[in-house]
Design goal:
283 residues, TIM Barrel
């Protein structure tokens, strides 16, 4: 029997509520344990962007050993039209520690469905949208069988379109993912990462943009940014205080005063539920 290595708090959190998604270079096996015991809500072993072609097989072998040996993670496999896609799925699909896969360069709904079918029944797929075509097809992709969440590959999207990294320039794309997720009945979309060298202040600023655009998760490249990101993506102290006051008033029999009361009450309940899930309601 293998020993479970994953952070217990994070392992028990439903992936639909994951705020931080830590990408780990699968060719660097020495970094796996640090990622596993970190506070990142979800860990993604990356076989794609961070791994050169000559190290793909070694990286895949690293992931197989890890997921057989007590680690738990998602895996970003290689894109569907690469020579590695089929072998990636064949190697990892039945491993006990596999949570799901991330499919890079998703542009069409059938890519997700075919990946899910090729892997195993019920395996969730995060569709990573990294191009103009992917973003324009976001709703169809969100509605495809097998799609679990949408994620935004900001850097490759910028390369494809020529957009700058300014939040205003990327607002349309982010809103498309948010609306598509809603249309597809999915959890909130996952935003692209801050720079690996970003300061805590920059991580907080980036997370504020993510939150403003209705996205509920964010990729992260540096394990040292995880705690700041989790805090920034959680209900704030002010939001928790507001929710407590409204819920206490409701329990005391407060009357409906206007048409906004029930929506505000629903929001307060959602804040309370999220804060409780993240261990913040009684903090």
């Amino acid at each position: 029997m293998t020993e479970t290595i994953r952070n217990a708090r994070a392992a028990s959190l439903p992936a639909k509520l994951s705020r931080s998604w830590l990408l780990v270079n699968a060719a660097k096996e020495e970094t796996f344990t640090e990622a596993q015991i970190s506070e990142s809500d979800s860990v993604i072993f990356d076989l794609e962007a961070s791994v050169s072609d000559d190290k793909k097989i070694t990286a895949r072998d690293n992931v197989v050993r890890a997921l057989e040996g007590g680690m738990s993670a998602w895996v970003r496999i290689n894109k569907m039209d690469s020579e590695f896609w089929d072998d990636d799925l064949a190697a990892i699909a039945m491993l006990p520690g596999l949570r799901g896969v991330m499919l890079p360069e998703t542009e069409r709904p059938e890519q997700v469905s075919y990946t899910a079918m090729r892997a195993k029944a019920g395996l969730p797929v995060i569709a990573l949208l990294e191009s103009a075509m992917g973003v324009e097809n976001a709703t169809k992709i969100a509605e495809a069988p097998g799609t679990f969440r949408l994620a935004f590959g900001t850097n490759d999207f910028r390369k494809d379109t020529g957009f700058s990294g300014d939040p205003m320039a990327l607002a349309y794309a982010r809103s498309r993912l948010t609306i598509a997720s809603r249309m597809g009945g999915l959890p909130g979309a996952i935003d692209g990462p801050s720079a690996a060298t970003a300061s805590d202040e920059q991580v907080r600023n980036d997370a504020e943009v993510t939150h403003m655009m209705g996205m509920t998760g964010k990729l992260v490249l540096n394990v040292d940014q995880v705690v700041t990101l989790n805090e920034s993506m959680s209900p704030s102290e002010d939001e928790r205080d507001w929710a407590r006051q409204l819920l206490e008033a409701a329990e005391g029999g407060s009357e409906i005063t206007d048409g906004s009361y029930l929506p505000r009450l629903a929001r307060a309940k959602k804040i309370a539920s999220l804060a409780s899930t993240y261990g913040l309601w009684n903090a």
